[in-house]
């Protein structure tokens, strides 16, 4: 069976995004499990810096040789930075999903929806059950 | 020698071009010549210059690299690649149909109009609906028509807040795309363990969006190849919330003469004549995607449609057919009247089957279940239940053959001279392979396909490299899918034009 990485300091959504909280800034990406399921990623569509995203809304689209999928955020806020390197090197989502493969940074007022997310242990269990 | 990219199997027509070479010689004109205004003329025209024999050999070679239903089994799930009977082609080439012009007067096109009228009647009868427009040019175009009709229906009643469409997560990608194109918003619904719509989630979504629910799009049988068990209940829940029900008719091959969507309670649906009624598709078709609906939506159909304008005076007389625009029509969706050549072929196909049409479905469902039964135990099946006209299996063995993916199985099938099934769709099944044999294949063909699948399952464990490096016998070997998706080369033009543009 595959052995997916799940860093301890992150929160995980059922739709396979990870969330890193630093003060009121939340960094969002997709999990190792998600990139493994998608296989080779060929394109990532990201919002503009300054855009306002609503909680539960779409962050962007990730496209692999298999499929195109929406990426969602559980928290709303203003986009303060996007990983523009992904335009040239979408494959870094495959090689380094929690590092170079991050998607966006949001400035968030209400962090409370993050409380409903899974920790690493719960997320591993969730992935294994699928 | 330099280790360069492999030689192409066949040069492009531009590379084959020789200056001054000609394929045809025009006769001297027998009418006076007119000077073409100088500003409408150009000095050069970049067409390849080739002799007739060069052209014939070029295209014959290309066609031999191709794979088609006339060459072999083509179980491409969701696409219904059934055999296209040649009688359909004969009928479409009858001069009265092939040479008719859409701008001809009504009086000179009564034969064509009669055919379209009867086809309209049959499509209503087969689906259990009241009204139809055969104008849409393909399935997604028919979807677009249907969703625009739903939208206009709500707006016409002054209920302008209804902008949300529910779409199950197993849906064809065209469903949410259609919704967005129509200016509405798609809301995804998860499937339950059996591949059906989760009724509790549906009820909650209907309650939550009660004021804004425009409708729901659903495929029956679903893209997972299973008949939605709660379809009547689903329709009831959505109707009670004020939404309309759209049926994606892509899988009508599983319903002919067996169930009528109009009677199940659907409000509107599209057909794919190129799937269900065997008009050729793939490689550009063209397709045809008639939209059928109940009385409620009939005024909103795209048009014009064919109607009887004058009833016959006596028994020996024929009615007069003509074009009529439905009174609240969403408008015209295509120039003229849709892909008429496809209407002729579908008409010929339905005529040939007549009252035997239900057998199409009987054999399509039987063939799919035969494959399912024989692959069970060797391949993982996400749903252990009877399937419709197609089946979904999982193309991997995480424990027994780690590293082997659905794509490897598909590529290896090409070495056995079969077209691969649909890969990685539906999205909700891991390593999905969607297999649709259709009714036109014999037991011998199905058996040889099954034997190949069983053999590939053995190879996956004993010699996985054989799968990873497949296909081995095709003119083009394993292609680089990542490069194909990332580095788009959208057209092939003469190099001197490309270099001129670059300057």
Describe the structure.
- The complex is a heterodimer of chains A (130) and B (503).
- Chain A has a single domain, classed as RNA polymerase II/Efflux pump adaptor protein, barrel-sandwich hybrid domain (OB fold (Dihydrolipoamide Acetyltransferase, E2P), Beta Barrel), CATH 2.40.50.
- Helix content of chain A is 18%, strand content 33%.
- Chain A contains four helices and nine strands, in the order βββαβββββααβα.
- Chain B has 503 residues and is α/β, with parallel strands linked by helices.
- Chain B folds into two domains: 267 residues, Aspartate Aminotransferase, domain 2, CATH 3.40.640; 92 residues, Aspartate Aminotransferase, domain 1.
- Helices cover 36% and strands 10% of the residues of chain B.
- Chain B contains 18 helices and twelve strands.
- In chain B, strands 1-7-6-5-4-2-3 form a seven-stranded mixed β-sheet, sandwiched between helices. Chain B has a three-stranded antiparallel β-sheet with strand order 10-12-11, with helices on one face. A two-stranded antiparallel sheet of chain B has the order 8-9.
- The model of chain B has no long low-confidence stretch (mean pLDDT 93).
- The chains are: A alpha+beta (130), B alpha/beta (503).
